[in-house]
Amino acid sequence: xxxxxxxxxxxxxxxxxxxLFVFMFSLGSGIASPIIPLYSxxxxxxxxxxxxxxxAYGLVYAISAVPLGRLxxxxxxxxxxxxxAALCTFAAASYSIATNVNQIMLIxxxxxxxxxxxxxxxxxLTTDVSQVSAVGRxxxxxxxxxxxxxxxxxxxxxxxxxxxxxxYTFLFYxxxxxxxxxxxxxxxxxxxxVVPYQLNSSKTTSKSIGLKHRANILADLISMVYSxxxxxxxxxxxxxxxxxxxxxxxxxxxxxxxxxARITSFLNAGRISDKMDRKLVLTPSLAGLAIGSYxxxxxxxxxxxxxxxxxxxxxxxxxxxxxxALISDYVPLSQRGVAMGMFETASALGQTIGPAVGGVLAxxxxxxxxxxxxxxASMVCTFVVGIFLKKRT
Length: 393
Description:
By secondary structure, this protein is mainly α. The chain is built from 13 helices and no strands. Helix 4 (77-95) runs antiparallel to helix 7 (166-187) and helix 6 packs antiparallel against helix 11 (302-330). The two termini are 29 Å apart.
């Protein structure tokens, strides 16, 4: 009996190993994510400098994602994944001894390189081991592991920072990164045999597939907008919440709620899009992202922030795995690493744009303006995808 959704060559075990590795990799980053802007602020960073810290990450990510994705096609997924884990280990150790904002910027750039190695290889490997009828489901499982790690990390971040202070919290990030590296070395295996890939549409021809297909380009657009919103929130929301008088523990809980909502969508949206259609999930999710961003802009209490991040989390959680599944519908295995690299480059552009624009808007005008910018970008993307993405035939 072949397990539904996986290639019939024992790749179910590979998926389990992927999920364990992804969970531990993201756990450490989840711990660090809300602490980095708060620690930077404690070192005297302005909103603009905090935005630049996020931009440094996104810029390196943008430059590196496609080359590293291409390398994963040539050298194998595992070696590039391990490179990402090793770089995260170095970054975690560096945070614990950083003493000024410029050092934080440099370390964040190194993290950008780490995640540029991590995501294209993980996404490509996950789709490599999946059957065509369940790519959304398997991507949902993989990204749910990522979300679970980040959610737990975000919750731990507030507790650890309250008990030990910002600097020593990074040591827990270091421990997680080391364990992720060990897990990657010992349990990750690439599939020995890849079943010839069959595209979703019975009418699809060799001339209508590949990197230049409209669906692939639209997936990259979604990735950029998705990441603009996500990185704006991860970079600026902890400081914004602190300015509203919210304690660091409650900020950690708030960020955890974002990830809990994302996990809920990770586990369901991909599976739903496998059965229905990618467009029927992507378009309303983009609209939800716009609504949630607007709610965040007008929120002034912790409970209002919770409502906003839940709406945003549900929307973000649907967009990521379904966009990856959309790419896999039209891009053959031989180009999958490059395609995921393009997707992550678009993501990196969003990660660069969001904190940079958001930091300027918060500093020069109002701390709520970055989220209005996110709402506008999400609404534009909703209309573009609604008009140009065609349903599968």
